[in-house]
Known about the structure:
By secondary structure, the protein is α/β, with parallel strands linked by helices. It contains nine helices and five strands. The longest helix is centred in the last third of the chain and has 18 residues, at 160-177.
Amino acid sequence: MTICITGMPYSGKSEAAAALRRKGFRIVEMSDSVRELMKKERVIAKSVDEFAVGERRRSGKAVFAKLTAKRVTKPLSKLVINGVRSVDEIRYLKRELDPKLLVVAITSPRELRYERFLKNKDASKYSYKEFLSHDRCNMKLGIGKVITRADIVIANTGKIAELRSDVNKMIKMVESEWNFSSRE
């Protein structure tokens, strides 16, 4: 079973991935592909968002899906790719890794995401305007389409324990109703 997690910044993607890790899933972060390419190209001054947008323009909308797929090792069972941002990335990952991969969107209201952002150690460097700019950047990449087309949507509006519980319920539902365990 391959799961791609998507969601806006501070929606709870990493917490959902951590819950899946505790269930034995391997996690591959798409953002690591961005940072690795930045390091390889010795890019220091740009923000990760700015670099990612520019690289997608230069190398194609699925560039980070391609780099992420290269980092994935066999077997593909119990694999999570965290941080998918576009339909092109989903198409590429389905074609190259798993045609039946599952897209899970983690959603949270903007106000709650901003509250979480403010608890982040780097929050003092950024304003609400910059938080909104980060949201707009993600929307330009196509994350809105990925969220609306997701196979499963988990609304993360409560405490971390509730999100973990929802992720565990999702795994049980997927394994039983969609019979993923027999496809591996």
